[in-house]
Design brief:
With 249 residues, the chain is α+β, with helices and mostly antiparallel strands. The chain has helices spanning 20-34, 36-44, 89-101, 159-177, 192-198, 224-233; strands at 2-16, 47-49, 52-54, 58-59, 63-70, 73-85, 104-107, 110-120, 128-133, 140-145, 148-153, 186-189, 202-206, 209-213, 218-222, 246-248. The protein has two domains: 2-120, Alpha-Beta Plaits (2-Layer Sandwich), CATH 3.30.70.1890; 128-248, Alpha-Beta Plaits (2-Layer Sandwich), CATH 3.30.70. It is built from six helices and 16 strands. The strands form five sheets. Strands 1, 4, 5, 6, 7 and 8 form a six-stranded antiparallel beta sheet that branches. Strands 12-15-9-16 form a four-stranded antiparallel beta sheet, with helices on one face. It has a two-stranded antiparallel sheet with strand order 2-3. A hairpin with a 2-residue loop joins strand 2 and strand 3. Helix 1 packs antiparallel against helix 2 (36-44). It is globular.
């Protein structure tokens, strides 16, 4: 389920440009208002599949009504919108309860009033769909560098980028439903002009870690089951850090 949250501030207030960690912290705090046990479990262990951990939620960039960029800060005033999504019923229920019980939230040191909370309808899925990113996609591959294994970011257009996204979606599907999807086919296509425009990506600082991610539009062809999982959980990695949320184009 996808939730649209509208916040507001009557006076100009500042948010760090690298705000993903603060939004993530706000979400866990809202979950805690409903269930400390669930919030702690999700934060510390999440949902596990073998040696991999998934949080199975993501959130979008912040979309302020009015803003000015001041060096490393975003000065905002008026309304500010963002989106949160998860296929997990318990997550949505605890988040909704936390949002409805809170009048204000903090993003970093800045306080905002909660104006509205809206559940959005799911789009009609088909075997070919185009999407745009409302938070950038991150995916990595493990390579040996100077004798040590390291996670290296994959860029759109590379074989690994598409492979990793597909394999990640299959794992998420299996974790959610306890089985493989009936249809495992999924092709990802990028427009050459978009590869040129968005191919450099951006660095997101999340606590002390830098995440390389890409806000590139793309078209999917194939499994509707896997498309839905990507739409609900986020595409790629670092979803709970605010990566991989998309909307239909």
């Amino acid at each position: 389920m996808r939730i649209k949250v509208t916040l507001s501030t009557p006076v100009e207030t500042s948010i760090e440009m690298n705000y993903n960690y603060y939004v993530s912290s706000m979400i866990y705090e809202l979950l805690r208002k409903s269930s400390t046990q669930y919030s702690t479990k999700l934060h510390e262990s999440g949902y596990t599949l073998g040696n991999k951990k998934f949080k199975l939620f993501t959130f979008s960039n912040l979309f302020p009504e009015k803003y000015k960029v001041d060096k490393n800060y975003l000065n905002v005033q008026g309304k500010l919108v963002f989106y949160i999504t998860s296929p997990m019923r318990e997550f949505v229920l605890h988040l909704a309860e936390g949002l409805l019980s809170a009048q204000r939230v903090n993003i970093g040191k800045s306080e905002f009033f909660i104006e509205t909370v809206e559940a959005l309808p799911e789009p009609k899925f088909s075997r070919e769909m185009s999407f745009r990113c409302i938070s950038p996609i991150a995916t990595t591959t493990v390579e040996e560098v100077d004798g040590k294994k390291r996670a290296i970011p994959c860029a759109p257009g590379s074989t690994k980028f598409a492979e990793n996204i597909k394999n990640n979606l299959i794992r998420k599907y299996y974790l959610i439903y306890g089985r493989l999807p009936d249809d495992l086919s999924l092709d990802i296509e990028f427009d050459e002009r978009d590869l040129e425009k968005y191919g450099r990506g951006k660095l997101i600082k999340f606590k002390e870690v830098f995440i390389k991610a890409y806000s590139i539009p793309f078209t999917l062809r194939g499994s509707i089951e896997l498309m839905k999982v990507g739409y609900e959980c986020g595409f790629g990695e670092k979803n709970s850090a605010g990566c991989g949320m998309v909307e239909r184009r």
